[in-house]
């Protein structure tokens, strides 16, 4: 990111109390000290100013490399707002209506079916009465699911098709989305809410409508204009040492390394708009500031300011 990430104001100037902000650090430090977390970074911003910034612990326990203000993290579902902004940029350009069936752009979704009953080995489905529309993807009301949820027959079918915590390794985004369209929906589109792979499908819609791969659209239309030089689907060799290792909570509650191999350091086959990006606190702060300022930051406007309804 351009420039050093640092506190830019006295907290009192933006209505915050410095002593109370320090309680964030004193609360989370024990999580590192007792092994529950390897490390953390916190940033508190108000009125466009950074009022509190702190880092503690290690970005990699094996080497002891500390968390620093420019550490790179896998941001997983924090990728979703970026993909949604990309879609809304295209909507504002008149590329589609939010009520358009997504099958207009992704034909594999033309004849969706909804799960009714039965087992994963013998599911009983019926034709969907309502098509998946663009707004369903944006609002997680499409009937799609995540395979890792373990709450329904439908997510069991996802896992059987290779969609657990990732996508089948042999598929790019287009192939993955087409395969998702072969699986039944959990409910009629628009009738319920369920967190899902919908934003990955939305990312593919962005590709089709824009005529660009998702990584290129992000780089040229969002990251470049906003100066988000740390955000991408993989980390280049020059920045590899800034990457935080990934940990999970073991049975004893302590942080355990999740071996991701070299996945962060090479372009992924599937460009996951729902959970595939890597970023820094400084970059994501800039993205959030753009949203808070009504779609504009430092003279760069990505989205129109919301109009009040009368």
TrEMBL record:
Short name of one Pfam family = Beta-lactamase
This protein's superkingdom?
A: Bacteria
InterPro entries listed in its UniProt record: Beta-lactam-related, Beta-lactam/transpept-like, Diverse_Enzym_Activities
Q: Which residues form the Beta-lactamase-related domain?
A: 24-298
Name this polypeptide is given: Beta-lactamase-related domain-containing protein
Task: Give the species this sequence originates from.
Answer: Actinoallomurus iriomotensis
């Amino acid at each position: 990111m351009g420039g050093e990430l640092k506190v830019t104001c006295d907290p009192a100037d933006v209505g915050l109390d410095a002593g109370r902000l320090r309680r964030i650090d004193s609360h989370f430090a024990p999580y590192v000290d007792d092994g529950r977390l390897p490390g953390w970074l916190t940033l508190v911003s108000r009125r466009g100013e950074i009022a509190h910034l702190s880092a503690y612990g290690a970005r990699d326990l094996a080497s002891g490399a500390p968390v620093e203000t420019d550490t790179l993290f896998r941001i997983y579902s924090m990728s979703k707002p970026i993909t949604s902004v990309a879609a809304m940029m295209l909507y504002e350009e008149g590329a589609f209506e939010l009520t358009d069936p997504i099958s207009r752009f992704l034909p594999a979704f033309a004849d969706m079916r909804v799960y009714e009953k039965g087992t994963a080995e013998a599911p009983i489905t019926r034709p969907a009465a309502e098509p998946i529309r663009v707004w369903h993807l944006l609002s997680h009301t499409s009937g799609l699911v995540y395979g890792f949820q373990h709450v329904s027959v439908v997510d069991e079918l996802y896992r059987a098709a290779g969609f657990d915590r990732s996508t089948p390794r042999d598929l790019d985004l287009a192939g993955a989305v087409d395969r998702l369209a072969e699986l039944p929906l959990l409910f009629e589109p628009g009738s319920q809410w369920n967190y899902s792979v919908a934003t990955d499908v939305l990312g593919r819609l962005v590709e089709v409508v824009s005529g660009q791969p998702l990584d290129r659209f992000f780089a040229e239309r969002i990251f470049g204009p906003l100066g988000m030089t740390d955000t991408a689907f993989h980390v280049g060799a020059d920045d590899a040492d800034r990457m935080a290792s990934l940990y999970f909570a073991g049975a004893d509650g302590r942080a355990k390394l999740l071996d991701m191999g070299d996945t962060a350091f090479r372009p992924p086959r599937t460009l996951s708009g729902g959970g595939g990006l890597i970023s820094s606190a400084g970059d994501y702060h800039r993205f959030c500031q753009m949203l808070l300022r009504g779609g504009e930051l430092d003279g760069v406007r990505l989205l129109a300011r919301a109009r009040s309804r009368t």
